[in-house]
Amino acid sequence: MIFIFRFMTGRRIKFVIGFILVAIITTSTIFVCFIRKNITVVIDGKSTNLVTYQNTFGNALKKSGISIDVKDKIDKDLNSKVQDNGVITITRAINVKVFVDNKEFNVKSAEKDVALMLNAQKIMVSPTDKISPSKETKLSSGLGITITRVNSKTIKQSKPIAFKTVIKKDNSILKSQKKVSQNGVKGVKSITLNVTYENGKEVTRKVVKETLVKQPKDKIIVQGTMPAVSFSRGSTTSREDVNSNVMKISTKTSGKTFSVKTTAYSSSGNAYTASGKKAARNPNGYSTVAVDPSVIPLGTRLYIEGYGNAIAADTGSAIKGNFIDLYFNTNGEACNWGVKYVTVHILN
Fold it and tell me: Second label for 53, Cα 20 to 30 Å away, from 91, 128, 157, 267?
């Protein structure tokens, strides 16, 4: 090259050098333009435009100072090749708390909602379990999710049936005398209960069936009615006045009266109805009952023979047609009621 330059004039030398520099610059420019890429990075819905000379998305993000957590969700493989005008979407993982099986877990997740997060964390949830907030709730930082394990079982109990005392009158015996002609014997009934548990603790029990095992035997008392005879001079007339207090239940009805099948249920804790009110048994006021709203609208006031005044405030999947479920404060009261067919009056 030096030998060639010796035979060239100064002007020609400058021309050749200029040509070589232009070639180098042009080649470099073409190379830079070839490897230069414009990409869009979307992080939690916010877009940022970047210029990169890297060949993979992972290197491009790292070069731009964008870190990726192992729990973050990315819609592209970080080792995939960068294309001009390419888009990569990143969803940042957030911290939430999960309370389940008497334990608390700190979870970092980039899932969209509670259901997807539970599935990703392999936290099993049965159809009967309660989830608060609901599965559809979107994840947010610091959100607390509580899972209540709900299960139920059927148990059977035997319960005595009280016998009745029957008074039979006998005019061959003095009214001052009475005697027991037949001793009473208690009967027995089998009660089937459905008991519901939340996190292993009983919350409700409901009578679903009762079967008569042994019929009770009435106690029979014979009461004399023959008056004592007394002799006196002249004529006398005696009369025995019997005063009795009769309790009368007066209800003003709208004119609709019908027969229904009734069952009973109770709660060991605070029970709330479908209408959001706390279940109550108030013999002196209005007690809570569950009805089929297509037969008896919620809010209807009722008089139920043998139970008292009530308000239709609850529903149930098994309560259909002329069927009412009565609330009692204790399991003993619910079992005593069992299953009965009674008359119901719709109150104004």
Answer: 91
